[in-house]
Structures are given as C-alpha cells and as structure tokens.
Amino acid sequence: MAFRAVHAEWGTVFAHLPDLGCGRAWETVWKARPAAPLACPECLHPLHAKVSRGGLRFFAHAPRPPHCEIALQGESEAHHLLKLELAGAARDAGAHAELEVRSADGSWRADVLATDPAGTWRMALEAQLSPITADGITARTERMRADGVTSCWFSDRPRPPWLGAVPSLRLDAAGAGLVVAEGLVKFTGGSWTAVPPVPVADFLRWAFSGKVEQHAPRSPLGYPARQLARVWTARTYVAAEDAHLVEVRRREQERERRLAEQRAKAAKRRAEIDASNVVSRAEALELAAAAEEQVRLAPSGPAEVSHHVLKMNRGVRRAIAYLAQEFGIAAEIGWSSSDPRWAGGTPLIAEDGTPVAVVDPAPYLIKGEAFRLLAGMLLLFATPADAQRFDRTTRGARKPRVPVDGWKMQHTGPEPPTSPAAPAAAPKGRAPRLVSRPWARAADVDAE
Length: 448
Fold this sequence. Notes:
This protein is α+β, with helices and mostly antiparallel strands.
C-alpha cells in the first residue's frame, strides 16, 4: 500500500490529494482503460490505483513485484490514515508535506516529510502504531538526525512504551480530528502538567516556528502515572523550571545554613553545659568526700552499719569485687551510707577517700544534691534489668531527672549463692554482736 506513484507523463502523483497533486481527477488513474502508466518510485514496478473498503485511496504493486520496501511494508489502513492526518496537519501549519520520502542513501524513510517552504528546516513526522522497542526507535531517529532531519513520532495507542524516549506525542481522537493527548506540557507550581488537548496542526505550527521544543524535565511530571524522559514544551516553561530549581537550591542552602547554625549553637550550648557539669559534679564529689571524711573523724567512731548494708544490698560484695577486677580499684563501703546525697544507695570509697561508685541507688530519691552527685558517678546494679528499671523510672517521672549525657551505669551480675555457715557459739550471758569495719576489704567484711 502506497500513496505515491510516478506517472509516465504527469510525474509524481499522490493518491491522498483530490487532484493527485497534478490537476488530474482520481478517475483518470482508477479503473482507467487502458491502465494508467503508474510505477513505484522505489522499484519502478507497475502500480494500480485502488480504493479500500473504508474508502481509502492508494496504490498497490502489480503481481510478482521485486524486492521493494514499499511492497514489503504491509502497513495497516490505520497507519496510512494516520499518515494522511499528519500530512494534512503539516500543510495546515504552513509547511510543505510529502509522504513516504526516502533518503538519498536509503538509510531512512519518512512517513511524512514536512519542510519549510524557504528550505530552512526539515522534520519527519512518523506514524508508529506497530510495536517497537525504545532502542529501535532511537536508532531510526538518530539516522535521520545525522542527515539534518529532526523528527517527531506519533501514536494513538493508549500507552506506547517508547513515548518520551525520542521526540514523540500520543494522540487521541476528538471530534473530527486528532489532538495531542500526552507529551506536550507546561510548568506550573513546581511540576510539569499536561496542557489542554490541542489540534495536531496547532502543535506542528508551534514546533515548526520554534515556539515549542524538546526538553528533558528535571522536575516531576504531574501527569499521568509515569515519567517521560523527553517532552515538548515552550521555552518560557523551561525558564520557569530553571528559576524554580534555582529557588529550590537556594532554599536548601538556606535550610542547610540554618541547620548548621542550630547545630553550632547546640554544640556551643552542650559544651557550656558539659563545662558547667564538670564543675558542679566536681563540687558535688568534693562535698561527698568531705562528708565521708567527717563521718570517719566523728568522735563516736565508726558506725556499725557495714553488716546491715551487706545484708540489705546483696550486690555490694559483688560491686566491690567488680571494681577491683575491672578497674583495679580497691574500694570499701562508705561510712556515710545514710547520707541522703547517695539516694538510698551504698557509696563505695577508694583508699584515698574519694567516692568511686554507688550501688543500687533508689530512683525516687534522685533530687537536689543526690542528682548533682550521682549524675557524674558510676552507678552499679546487680543485673541489666535493675539498671534499665532505674533509667526508665527516672525518665518516666512527672519531672524527669536524667543527666544530659545519661546515667553511667554498669551491672555486676548477681552475687553467687553461698552455703550458710553455722553461727559461732556466743558467750553465756549476752547475744553475739555483729560489727564490721567499713574500711576493710570485702573478704574482711564478709566475716561474721
């Protein structure tokens, strides 16, 4: 099926034109007797004028044609009708349009070749209804481009997979003609959206005059549920996208600057807090050490509480051993265990009199001097669950009391069970008196 033929006397004739393009009626070649001297412009084999059942006029090869691309094309009537629509739209847009134009070297063939009457540009209008890959259609486009011919591919199929891979548009039927349904866009509100449907002739008029051009969008397409690599749009919309992206970048930079300032301010504030904490914690530790020394130097002598502490706080022995094993610190139970600054926990004091840890403090007693002291000390618990419970309770209180850098907590593991020893016989006349020395080692305190 072809629309162009060569008449022996009239030259090139076109089946889709009312006057065949040479001022002659269709009847002069259709059913003429004798047959009109028509030949294929490609292979020079005889052609016959025919009319399809739908009324489409075309030329067909006589039987047994040679190897000819036109004869082998096997194009559908829908494809030929679309080519006719494109040719008519190109003429309505002010261009010269010719169907089935072959390149000089035969490397490509345009369904419709639209040219400027002044000869300044050429554009191939391709009707693509049969399946084709994006790579295949790109290769055909590049072959035309190498000869200085731009192109635009058209399809009226619902979702051509190659749409946007090359300069292309999806068409749709509207009334008596075709309109652009997809591929022609405008930039509004930070994204690309489809323009209202426009006739193909209007689009071609804009494309021929340079009012619309190909563009690779850098912002999202707001229609439909797919993104296209290439679209048609006006230069003003390309400039609008450029300005939008510049503004987006400016806002990002401004946001990054504000975040950097906030981070710097937070870091400065944190450094100030850390410095303040170092001072306040050092003061709290110094006061605690002084309180411990004051108890030790009291005229009443050592308080007889060590055995009671070991009994009531099962993890104290293990905590003393833990400090020795993990940190090489020889510690003993502080005499100031009843001081409220320990929040009900048991202080462990190093040989130089410095508090080094607190065993099992009570979270509900963490306030005032106790908070300032324990915020910078090592807190020892028998199990991870005990440590988690302490942290959860202090955070979940009505007025949470948690250091900015969190509690420094370790768990020592439960104290291993020991077999009870038989109590020594007490002298007659008085009950046995259990007294432990707080400054002694754990092994010494263990004796009863």
